[in-house]
Amino acid sequence: MTEEGYKRYRRAYLLLKKRQDKGLVKFTYNYCRVCGLEPDGKTQPLNQGPLRYWDADDGWCIGSLCMNCWVDVFDAKPQPGDHAYDTRRDLLDDNVNTDEDESLALY
Fold first, then answer.
1. How far does Cα 6 stand from its chain's mean position?
2. Chain centroid to CA 74: how far?
3. In angstroms, rounded to a whole number, what is the distance separating the alpha carbons of residues 66 and 40?
4. Confidence label for 76 from pLDDT (cuts 50, 70 and 90)
5. Segment holding 18, helix H or strand E
6. What's the pTM?
7. Element (H or E) spanning 11, and its range?
8. What percent of the chain has pLDDT over 90?
């Protein structure tokens, strides 16, 4: 892993840890919304959720994510070239896929 990659992973981990300490993120057996990983709880770490993130095709989403996907999307922001980018819409999430309380992802 490059030094920049390590710094990015560390930032994502610390943000997630801060949210866990506040009780806003919980461990879950739900599948990862990005890659589809379903943790078995033995060989794979549990996913975390609910997490809010930007998807270029779907817009703002709330769901459970594995750590690798969280590192990829934790700082993503809407870009004018994204399919879901629309200046006329509010940025409230319309795409929720979690068993947890989705309002926790908005803090």
1. 18
2. 6
3. 12
4. confident
5. helix 3-21
6. 0.72
7. helix 3-21
8. 29
